[in-house]
Structure formats: structure tokens, C-alpha cells
Amino acid sequence: MEHVLDNPAYNALATGNKQLAKGNEQIKYFDKEVSPFIGFKEYRPDNFQQLYDLITHSGPVGFVSPVEREIPKIWNVLNAIKCLQMVYTGDATPTDVSIELLALTDEHIPQMLALTKLTNPGPFAERTIDFGFYYGIFDNNKLVAMAGQRMHPSPYAEVSAVCTHPDHTGKGYAKVLLQFHINRIIAAGNIPFLHVRTDNERAIKVYETMGFETRREICFYIMKK
Fold first, then answer.
1. How far is CA 155 from CA 193, 197, 211, in A?
2. Rounded distance between C-alpha atoms, residue 212 and residue 196, angstroms
3. For a pLDDT cut of 70, what percent of the chain falls above it?
4. Is 223 within the bounds of a domain?
5. Which residue range(s) make up the domain with 38?
6. From start to end of 116-207, where are the E strands?
7. What pLDDT score does 95 carry?
8. Residue 175 belongs to a domain with what CATH number?
9. Residues 135-179: pLDDT tens digits?
10. How far is CA 46 from CA 4, 27, 39, 170, 224, in A?
11. Separation of alpha carbons 74 and 56, rounded Å
12. Residue 2's pLDDT is what?
């Protein structure tokens, strides 16, 4: 039987993120202002044609696969990214209470977009905040670090958009935000997981020291009509 995390986008859209889902039983996707990810209930080459007909916008979409796939030529593949899918195997542990975390709201969207554009933690759009649970660290009212939750293929919840402004690295902000979300997800009865590029050795080591273990390699295809 296929593991729920082998098809994280579709299973998220069918369970924990179903309030954000568009599409039908076979093909589901997020609004482009929330996330580019799409999911197929099962992989079939003809689903790509159906997706092409279903999606009305011309912006990029993200297809997640546990193995490398041949993408039909009706789609222009902009990028193929290999990532490690890592699952948290530890327990909840205390966080550094000396660093204040603030819940991010719509008023913070311009700063969130600026920070993610600068640090490039992955796709982040105008309404990505609709996933919920985004928290940040501020310095003189300027957002300098943040992290949130993205795909929620129940019972797993993905920690995402972990980023720190280059002027504020080395202060432990990412670890504090990660541990906060780990504890929050566990308290909600879910299992934390995340994706990280296979070539991001520094981040992989940080995640491993915090209790994440690699489950498998997974492929992200960014494609456009």
C-alpha cells in the first residue's frame, strides 16, 4: 500500500488541507495564490492532459512524485528538484522562551513575501498564509525569521518556509521556530515532516540534530503550460 507521504500533495488536499482544495476526485490543486502544488489520486500520463484542461491560469504548478517521472510534453518543465523527505522521530522539547515568536497575520504579508523572495525557502505566494500557523521573529518591527506549516496529509504536517534574513543568521532563530512547530504539531496529534533539497547539506545536518530522519528521496517538478 502506498504511504501517505509518497503522494503528499494529493493526500493533503484530500485531508488536512481539503478546505483549500480545488479540482475533482482524481485531480486536486490549490489556488495559485496559496500554493502551486497539484496532486493526482494516481499517476497516469492522461492525468497531465486533464490537469492542463482544468487549470485556468498560466502560472507554474508543482507536481510531487516519489520517483522520477516522464512529464508529457504539453507541459514545459521549468525545474526538477530532488529533495529528502524527513520525518520527525523525537519528542516535544522546550523552546528558548527568551526569543519572542509572533503569530503572523495579513498585515505581515508584504514582509513575508520580501523575506521569502530574499531567502528562497520554496514557493511562497500572496495567500500562502492561508495554510495557517505562520510565526515570525521581529527586530525593531522588521520580520527577520519565520516558519509555518504547509501540506497537511493527515496525520502528517509539513514544516515549511523556514527562513532567516542573512543579517540575522547564527542567532538560533531557525532552530527556535522549528522546535516551536514540532511541539505544536505533536500537541495537535500529528507528526512533523519536511522537505529539503538534497544539496542543502547544512540544513540537512541541522534537521538531523533536531530529530528528523530521512524517509526517502522525493522529486518536485515545477512545470508550466
1. 10, 23, 18
2. 11
3. 100
4. no
5. 4-81
6. 135-139, 142-149, 156-164, 191-197
7. 82
8. 3.40.630.30
9. 999 999 999 999 999 999 999 999 999 999 999 999 999 999 999
10. 22, 11, 13, 48, 16
11. 15
12. 85
State whether 105 and 206 are in the same domain. yes
**CB of 35 closer than 8 Å to CB of 131:** yes
The average confidence (pLDDT) of the chain is 95
Say if residue 1's pLDDT is above 70: no
Cα dihedral across residues 29, 30, 35, 41: positive or negative: negative
Kindly tell me the sign of the dihedral angle through the C-alpha atoms of 216, 177, 117, 55: positive
Q: Does the global pTM surpass 0.85?
A: yes
Nearest-angstrom CA–CA distance, 44 and 21: 20
Closest CA to 164 of 120, 194, 205: 120
49 secondary structure, DSSP code = H
Q: What angle do CA 158, 159, 163 make, to 5 degrees?
A: 145
Are 56 and 26 a contacting pair, CB within 8 Å? no
Same domain? For 101 and 45 the reply is no
Contact between 26 and 46 (Cβ < 8 Å): no
Task: State the pLDDT confidence band at 20, using cuts at 50, 70 and 90.
Answer: very high
pLDDT one-digit tens code per residue, 168-198: 999 999 999 999 999 999 999 999 999 999 9
The cell numbers describing 191, all together, are 507528526
Residues 144 and 182 reside in one and the same domain: yes
